[in-house]
Amino acid sequence: MTGNDVVLALVITTGLGFDFTNGFHDTGNAMATSIVTGALRPRLAVAVSALLNLVGAFLSTAVAATIAGGLVNSHDVTLTVVMAGLTGSILWNLTTWFLGIPSSSSHALIGGVVGATMAAAGGSAVKWQGLVSKVIVPAALSPVIAGVVAALGTYLVYRLTRGVSEDSQRHGFRLGQIGSACMVSLAHGTNDAQKTMGVITLALIANGTLSAGAKSPTWVIASCAGAIALGTYIGGWRVIRALGKGLVEIDAPQGMTSESASAAVILSSTDFGYSLSTTHVATGSILGAGVGRKGAVVRWQIANRMVVAWLLTLPAAAVVGALAYWGADGIGGTAGVVAIDVVLVLAAIAFYAASRHPAVTPENVNAAWTGSVVPRAARRSGP
Amino acid sequence: MNSWINLDALWKIIVVGVLVGAGLPALFAIGVRALNPPARTDRAAATPPAAGPIGYLVAAVCFAVVLAAIGWGVSVIVSHR
């Protein structure tokens, strides 16, 4: 095994690591509302979502090669650039997960790769127009569209079921909610698993293993599908709780309308050539479902916090990606790539350790919202 | 302007989003409503009213349309190369 093979192996495992964080970061997009309304038990919900992500990842591989190719000049991309980009995206994903903020994994990935490319080859290596038209404009529009659709749907649903007893209403809409949440999971698998496939394929091309313009090999598709499914199954309970309990107090009809709006917007934009962030759409929909119901609790300060995190995602991941590139480049060669990988693993362990005390788990994910992601312990102390 | 924002795709997304994303839940709600007619105030609340044959028919049509739309959604995902 030459030094380059070591680097390639590290880049691929780090890519799969990112895919894993992508999975658990985004479980909440599809399943948060079903978990908080009790339509599905928490562990069953994440299992169903994981399975559908796995299936979805195999169903379609259209976006795979475009993710990095349309945004940066691929001949400026080296293995070190990919590695540094992945480092930036994983660290930002872990930070936002720890804080319970549903930020976009796609933006983290794009930000990391763009930042590392800029550090390596300067600003001219970035296709700015592609970045604005394919990433920034959809990111600004999609949560608004999804929110309006969900608000309209919620209004109609409550209007049409006036007079139906709360029990039969809940029973019916829980079923509908499961269906719509499954659609979002499937769509997520087709969208997000492909982004990692694209990055790993890019690394293989950069290494010369594949020729330029090659499709993702089957083992890349299978391992990415597995990584995102495993991540989804682990479940990002912090993000699930923030979305399902923190942002809006969700009832079954709202859960169904918000997931339907998400599925409709994600699928139609995939079909019409907009690639967008599942996270932004899902958050916009949940917010819309809160606005559309008279008297619903919507916590705007939490929504503000999420929007701030969205605005920060691209630049923050880019800065970390650039720093990682300079670090690896400064040390040089294989040692440099190994060094940032070690730093990344240590940081991941630190985040994991910090998240255990106290932890958000399937058992306490639905506890009453007391102003923080981590549920307050059962003891009844003062405010 | 057009190279920075794809207006053609945008309006289609809005139309499909509203029709499917809000329309289907509304249809589903009509189905739920048809299965659970409102209780009459003049009767004792002990026995909840049951849906008549028309109620069942309306509900069946609504749910069938919703299911067909889900099938369409899956086929969109699969056929997307």
UniProtKB/TrEMBL annotation, chain A:
Keywords: Membrane, Phosphate transport, Transmembrane, Transmembrane helix, Transport. It holds the Pfam family PHO4. The chain crosses the membrane at residues 6-24, 44-71, 77-101, 108-129, 135-158, 307-328, 334-354. It is found in: Membrane. Its main location: membrane. One of its GO terms (biological process) is phosphate ion transmembrane transport. One of its GO terms (molecular function) is phosphate transmembrane transporter activity. Belongs to the inorganic phosphate transporter (PiT) (TC 2.A.20) family. This is Phosphate transporter. It comes from Kitasatospora aureofaciens (Streptomyces aureofaciens). The lineage of its organism: Bacteria, Bacillati, Actinomycetota, Actinomycetes, Kitasatosporales.
From TrEMBL, chain B:
The keyword Transmembrane applies. The chain crosses the membrane at residues 9-34, 54-78. The keyword Membrane applies. Keywords: Membrane, Transmembrane, Transmembrane helix. This is Uncharacterized protein.
